[in-house]
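Example record

The entry below shows one chain as it appears in the dataset: sequence first, then C-alpha cells.
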Amino acid sequence: MVKLSITVVFALVAGASAFAPQASVPVRSDVSLDMANGSKRKALMKHLGKVAGAAGAFALATTGAAPAAQAAKQAKEVVETVDNTKQLIAAGAAVIGAGAVGMTVLGGEKKQDFLEAKPYYDQSTVPVNTFKNKSPFTGKVVSTKRIVGPKATGETCHIIIDHNGDFPYWEGQSWGVIPPGNREKDGKPHSVRLYSIASSRYGDDMTGNTGSLCVRRATYWCPELKADDPAKKGICSNFLCDTQPGDEVNMTGPAGKVMLMPEEDPTTDYIMVATGTGIAPYRGFIRRLFFEKTPAAEVYKGEAWLFLGVANSDALLYDDEFQEAKSKFPDNFRLDYALSREQTNKSGGKMYIQDKVEEYADEVFTKLENGAHIYFCGLKGMMPGIQDMLKGVAEKKGLDYDEWLKGLKKAKQWHVEVY
C-alpha cells in the first residue's frame, strides 16, 4: 500500500506541473487508469486526494497564488462529492501541482524579479502619489500583531495590508493613511498620516500583493488622571493598532524618494540609523538585499550597517530577522543596538543612538568619504544629538562640518526622514 501511494503521488506531481500556474491547462485524468476498479484502490485515491488537497491548500494559502488556490478548491470539492477515481486523480494532481508551486515560493526558490525596473536600479519609474486624498486606495488588513515584549515602553504593531498588487511602491517610500471619522473641532475628515513602509515591494509574502506598516500606538499619560487620556490618544495609530483582519484602510501615496537605495553600484555601503519605528524602511532594505532573490541581492557586495536605538531589549523590532541576516551574511550585514535603559555610553550616561554611532565615528566617516550613503529615520528629536555628535567628530578631524555635510548632500549620500 505504501509503495503504491508513493508511486501515485509522484505520478500526480509529474502530471500536474503544468496545471498550477495556468488554470486553463487541463490536468490529465488518465494517469494509472488500471486503478479505476476495486474498493481499496478507490479508497486509496480518495485518501490521496484529501492529502493532496490539504497540503496544496496550506501551501497556496501561504503564498497566495490564485490559480493554485483555485485548483485546491476544486480538488477539495471533487474529493468530498464525487466517487470517481479518474476525477480524484485529476483533482489530486491539480492540488499537488499547486502545492509544488506554493512550496517553491515558501522555499525561496522563486525569484523576486517581477516588480523590477529595467534595469533594476533605474529610478525613473518609481511610483509617486498614485493615490491622493480625494481618491484614496482602499486596502484590507491581513493581520495586526504586537511585536514588542511586555517590558517595552509602549505598544508597537506590525500590520500587513493587502493591496492586490494595485498599489506598487519601492523600498524607502511611505504610505499615507486616512483614519475613519471626522475631527471633533470642525467636523472635517481626519488628515492623512504618513507611515514608512516596513516591507520590500514584494511584501512579507513575496507575492507583490501586500505591504506592511510598523506603528507605535500613540497614547498620552495624564498625571492628574494617573492613566492614559483617551481624548488625547493618537487617532490614526490607535485605529491601525486596533484593526482586525478584513478591516478596510484608506490610503494615499506612495510618497517620497529621499530614502530610496541607489543600487546601480552593488558595492555601495548603506549606513542606516533609526530610533523606534524609524526601523521601517530599513526592514524593507534588508529583506530586499538578504532575504529575497532580487536582482539587487544577487549582485550586492557592499555592507549594510544598521544602528537601532530603543529603550530596552523588549522594545527591539524585527530582531529575529536582523540576527538571521547577520548570521547568514556576516560580511555584508552589520548590526548595532543602542538600548538607553540597559546600556551606558562612554561618559556613564544612557546609551542613545548618537552615542552608539560615535563609537564607530572613524569608520563611519571613512565609509562616507568612500561613497557610502547614510540614512536617518525616526523621531525628529534624534537629529540634533546626531548632528552635534558628527560636528564634534568632524572638528576633531580638522574638517569644516558645514562644508562636509554640504558635500554629502550634493552627492546625494545624506538621507533624512524624521517625524
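Notes for this example: DSSP finds twelve helices and 13 strands in the chain. The chain has a mean pLDDT of 81.
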